[in-house]
Each structure stands twice: as C-alpha cells, then as structure tokens.
Design the sequence.
DNA sequence: TTGTAGGCGTTATCAT
DNA sequence: ATGATAACGCCTACAA
C-alpha cells in the first residue's frame, strides 16, 4: 500500500480506485483513528488552516478587556465560525504589530482578523504578510479601497438614540464617549461617527449643542469617575438627558449619579450604546442602541473566507443598529 | 554556511563557535527578519509550543457563554500567560471530546487546559494524548491522584455568605443555583460544595433548612425566570434572604422580583457569587462572594507549565474567596 | 489503479 | 568549529 493511495483516499480522489482498496484503506484509517499531522501539512502544501484573531487593544483603551462582553463575544463567535468552516483559531492578544507579524509568519497563518487595531496596522499586515485580513470596528476612510472592515452603523446609532431622547421631550442632551484623537480629518472614527449622528439629529430638530455638553471621557476608570462626578455636581450643565458611548459607561455613570444624590431617570435620563445582556435586566432598564456582537464576529469570519477565496474581494460592511427604549429615560415636558 | 550552524545560533549553542561566524549569522538573521517555521518545528523536534484551551460547556449549560464574563476572563488571562511563557494558544470551543482529541493530535498540542469539562474527560485526555492537562473548576473526588485542577474554595464561599446573611439578622435563607446531578456520591460538585457551606453555616447557628428553600435552578433562561417568578408569588416561601449561585442569576432574579412588585432589599435581600465587575456598580450594590477570574486563568497555565516540566507533578489548588457586603442585603431584626 | 522520488524547514547525530 | 545527512509526515508530479 503506497502513501499516494492513502493520500487519495484522504482527499476524496476515489474516482478510479478499486472499491476493495478504498474499503481497506478506510477501515485502517478508522481503526487507527488516523489524524493528519498539521506540522507536515504546513510544510508540504503551503496551507496551515490557521486563522489568527489578533486582539490589539492597548490596556489603557480597554482596561477591563478580559471581562468585556464585547471582546468575549467576538472571541467566541469568531472561534465558532472558524471551526465550523474547517479552520483552526490562534488567539493572539498583543498590540505589538511586530510580534503579530512574527507569529503569523511562524505559523503560516492563512487569514487574520484584527480587533482593536489601527487603520495603518491593517495595511501593514496585508502588505507584509500578503494574506487576507479583515478588521473589526476599525476607523476607515471614505476613499479606502481593498479595505475589508466589519463595522457598525455608528452614525445611525447616534442619530436614532438622539431622536428618541428628543421624542421624549428632551432638548438639552449631552454626549459622552471615549473619543480617539483623530489627526487625519478624512478618517472617520467610530465615536466621531456616533457624535456626528447626535449633532445632526440635534440640528435637524432645531436644537443647539452647547460645547460643554460633549465630553471626551477618559480611558482610565478613576478619571472617568471624577469626570462624571464633576458633571453631576455641575447639575449636568443643564442637560436633562445624557447619551453615553457604551452601556458599561452609562451604568458606571448612573452609579456615580446615585451616589451624588440624583435619581435615574427622575433627575437625569441616561442612555447607552451596545445593548449588553444586563441592560434589560436592570431596574431601571437601560435605554440603549442594540448591536449584535456575535453577528459581528461571524460576519468578520465570513468576509475573511470570501477574501481568501477571491483576493480581489472588497467590502465595507456596516451592521445594523436598533433602538432599545428603556426606563432610564424619562418622558418630560 | 550550513543549516546546523544556523540552528546552533538560533538555539544559543554558541559556546565553541567562531565569533565572526556568529556575527555573520546573526546579522543575516536580523536583516532578513528570520522567523522559524513552526510547521517544520513540529515535524523536526517533537514539540509545537502549542497549548490548547478547550471550552467544553454544552450550550445548555452556559447559554450566554459568549458574553459570560467568567469565560471571557479565562480566555484572556490564559492567552496572556501562555504567550508570556513563549507558547501559543489554540482556542477550541467544542464539547465533543473526540474532536478535541483529533485536534490535539493533529497539532501535536503540548499541553491542554480544560474548561467546563467533566471529570472523566480529564482522564480520557491524559490517557489518550499522554500530554499534561489541567482542568478549571472540574468537580473532583477526594481520592483523585494525579488530577490537576484549579478550583475555588466553594464550600468556604457558601459558608461565609450564609454567615454574613445570618449576621445581618436573617434566619430564613434560601439557596438557589444550577446544580449538576451527582450520580457518584464521592464526587464533589462545585455547586454542591457551596450548598454544603450554606447548610453547615445554617446548622452551626442552630437554624433549620426547609426543603423548599433549596432550589435547583434550570439552565434555560425562561424556565429559570418562571421559577423565580413563582417563588416571588409564593412570597419567597417565607425567606427574608436569597443566596444565588452566581451574580448573573441574582441580578436576573432581582429584576423579576421588581417586576412582581417587590423591592430589593426592602422586601427581599439578595446575594450572589462571583463579584462580576458590575456587581459593585449597580444600585443597590450586590452582596457577593468575590473570586478572581483572571487569577484562575493564570494559575491554570502555571500549573500546566509545572506539569509539563515534571510529569509526576500533582496538585489540587483551591483559590481563595472573599466576602463582599452590599446594599442588596438589608439588616433586619 | 498504484508506486516512487523529491521537497517542504528544522533538528539531531555523526563526521570532518 | 563547521558540515553532511537522515529523519519528521505529507503532498505532488511523474513513472509504471
């Protein structure tokens, strides 16, 4: 029995093969529980069936990274989709792009998903590795070509929540989020897209936005705590509703407000973004903008697979958002 | 220049080597940004530097697996520790042990961490793969030998929370948790250890435990919802405090109680287990038992590395718990 | 329809 | 102090 025959069986090239040979090979394969050695496969053909999920947040961007439901959901749904498609997932949680490059080369990674990386990192990976790369939630430029990113309708999210708050009678609405410093004006950052949605909604309803209503929150938990505490002591700068860039920050702030003697929503209305599992299970339930984390992960893998099949493939996906009203917003006026 | 010489440089076997040769090799290595091919390494030596994290929960055990802060924290901290020690992490989220075995064989996995697996799975992996395996939170038997598990002081956790509730004047205390059906009486399950801590604390304070105060919660969200709703309508079977097996379930239940018109903690005191990040950020803050998820992940990797160095190594680690008082428990009497 | 031979990149052993 | 060679397991092209 020669290796070729076995290889043919393994790869289903059983067209013109003696049925009894096939039988014999099959049964031995089954009996010995044969498993192909991936090391040899990497060496032999040039394919590893490995896809890397790179988590590139700096610790100061996502301090509670590990307990972050967004990151956890992405890891889980990406792994699942990768496995269902016959690939394996290497998890690599490192913002150092040089080390990511090394890892990818060492393992002959066939495709890469980038989470929390910068725009230039995306291009660097594709250029230096010459493998398909899909990013999740990267900021993008309108003129980007061949840049496969899975993002969200952030602008629409900012807009629909603001319109909801306005529909509940609010006229003085604050917006608070982590905002990356955009040096390049042509780059659309995630938070600035939401901010723009908020601003446009306000403008469209003839409402002015005071400068102090827009707050860039700190990435450090204590500083952020101090920021919202100051805001409460300034009686919210006159705002009756506050729209936060994430549910986590909205809940965090709500706690501080209560400590400062303000009730939610009686004294201040609060809204978030993400619709984390707990949002609807709290009292008061949190008004928020729903996004589907798992869908994002699955979608990223699907886009990657398309890109692996067709290197010329390009797309700019923006997954839909949905308004989730909640008790944390009071109807006024 | 021969491959051997280069290999020697790569592995630091530069003892009796001409300094200039070393220099030359080094500089070429640096210039070309040489990265060793892991496929070839797997084939050459018998080591892959791969550690697998197997997540083996059945979907009905952890329905919201992906957004579960416990699982997310473990994934993150395990990856980090693995990487810091020069290994790579393969994430494999599959309860099918046959497929896990296949994967491990295909990749020449050097070590394995099992999360959410059964006791017999642990033994099967070690037996069939002959590689070091560490489990996290597996149930265990007192007489287990060579079974490396990283667990928690569950009994103590159950006890200290119950004693806290008693110290706050509660005498009628309920315990609610997912509980695995223990067929083997010598096996100590995680939830039953906590239950025992609860029972012992009650007994030690001369308090009787009525049968209906101990509830086995369903793994299905809707059923669980119905269970706690019924409980509320039965006026908590006379209990003044309820101790839940996890923060997530405590918060979930608290929401149902409010829907049914009961206030926490005025009408019913509630306590959880885990100390998830949100527990302290809610109003009322949740009384809970703290466990450190990330420590568990790091610890599992450390134990695995020890086991990889010394195949005879054995341990049974139980990480400490800590009481976290909270506003969700009212002082009565 | 099946067998043979060479190559993939690395390591270990042995020879120079 | 360096080089040659075989082996690791699989794949492919070509030969029989």
Sequence:
């Amino acid at each position: 029995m020669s290796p070729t025959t076995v290889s043919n069986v393994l790869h289903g090239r059983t067209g013109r093969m003696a049925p009894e040979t096939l039988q014999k090979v099959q049964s031995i394969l089954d009996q010995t529980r044969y498993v192909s050695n991936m090391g040899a496969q990497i060496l032999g053909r040039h394919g590893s069936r490995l896809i890397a999920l790179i988590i590139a947040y700096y610790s100061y961007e996502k301090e509670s990274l590990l307990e972050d439901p967004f990151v956890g959901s992405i890891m889980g749904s990406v792994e699942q989709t990768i496995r269902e498609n016959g690939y394996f997932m290497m998890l690599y949680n490192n913002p150092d792009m040089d080390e990511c490059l090394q890892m990818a080369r060492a393992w002959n990674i066939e495709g890469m998903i980038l989470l929390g990386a910068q725009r230039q990192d995306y291009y660097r990976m594709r250029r230096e590795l010459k493998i398909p790369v899909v990013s999740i939630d990267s900021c993008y430029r309108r003129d980007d070509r061949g840049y496969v990113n899975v993002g969200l309708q952030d602008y629409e999210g900012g807009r629909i929540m603001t319109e909801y708050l306005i529909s509940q009678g609010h006229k003085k609405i604050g917006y608070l989020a982590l905002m990356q410093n955009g040096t390049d004006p042509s780059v659309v950052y995630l938070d600035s897209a939401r901010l723009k949605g908020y601003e446009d909604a306000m403008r469209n309803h003839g409402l002015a936005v005071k400068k102090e209503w827009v707050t860039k929150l700190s990435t450090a938990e204590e500083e952020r705590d101090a920021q919202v505490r100051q805001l409460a002591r300034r009686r919210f700068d006159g705002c009756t509703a506050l729209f936060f860039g994430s549910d986590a920050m909205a809940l965090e702030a709500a706690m501080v407000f209560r400590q400062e003697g303000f009730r939610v929503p009686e004294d201040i209305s609060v809204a978030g973004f993400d619709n984390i599992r707990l949002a609807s299970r709290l009292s008061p339930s949190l008004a928020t903008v729903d996004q589907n984390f798992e869908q994002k992960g699955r979608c990223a893998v699907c886009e990657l697979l398309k890109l692996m099949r067709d290197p010329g493939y390009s797309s700019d996906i923006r997954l839909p958002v949905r308004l989730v009203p909640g008790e944390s917003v009071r109807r006024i006026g």
Observations:
- Chain A touches chain B through 53 residues (CB under 8 Å).
